[in-house]
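=== Structure Prediction Worksheet ===
Name of assembly: unnamed complex
Input type: mixed (protein and possibly other molecules)
Chain count: two
Listed entries:
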Amino acid sequence: MKEQYVDSFLKAVQDVFALMLDLRAEKTNEENVDKFVTTDGANVTIGIRGDLSGTVLFTFPEKMALEMVKIMAGMEIDKLDNFVVSALSEVANIISGNALSNLNGYNYSCDLDPPQVVDAGKAIPAGKEAVRLPLKTGIGEFALNIALEEDDKTGK
Amino acid sequence: MLWKDKYKIGVALIDQQHQELFRRVADFIATVRGQGDWEERLAKVKATLAFMQEYVVTHFADEEAYQASINYPGLAAHKQIHDSFKQEVEQYAEKFAATGFNEDLIQSFAGKLMAWLINHVAREDQRIGEFARQEVRSNERTIC
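=== Predicted Assembly ===
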């Protein structure tokens, strides 16, 4: 997978985490995968269409998901309910939107599909070019999974 | 939902309204996530929702008027973000009415609203403040 794709998403995660959660997020690894595996917590997938097509999947373990929403809400959050999952879906949407702006800087024009929540314990086929990025933060580790391919017609 | 000083854009009217908006959304979230039977809480949920919807419209209008007053070049794009959000809120309101104010649906709306508002104020609205400050500096240089 092109470094530009990974960097665009990584920078977006880091910017949004700093802005919305006052947290740093650092990539601890990058591995090629052929399937995406969801966690026991909140799992949000977003489709990408345009010059690049594919999917990103954010997998937030339950403890971290609750902590993220606690930071935003300023109140104790003790269960993974619709409020939590919806807030994290919007965070995933914001990160993906920022990543698309970054990709636009490399002359890739893309659109996002609405976020979808995926059940825990699922293995989703990821396509030919897919990577998993574990990201470490002060409140836990989550993973950003990216599967992106160039549309043959773009010739980029 | 916590207000942070880093969200200030340096324009008194807008900063006051943002803080009020955060208070109202916090109040809405606290009501939606409160203890007790949903049916018993519903009257307060409806009241805070209506109150907040009205305030969002007022605030967006005032913020757009301010942007126009300083010839902010991002006004059209910013207005589009506001319009799109207002439309989404209206769609939610229709769904609430159609489902008899389903609790899960309102919880989902509250979560999305919270994250959207934090990002919008902390990112998009900051650009208005940056432009206003640049204009002031530019005018000061011209006067000198």
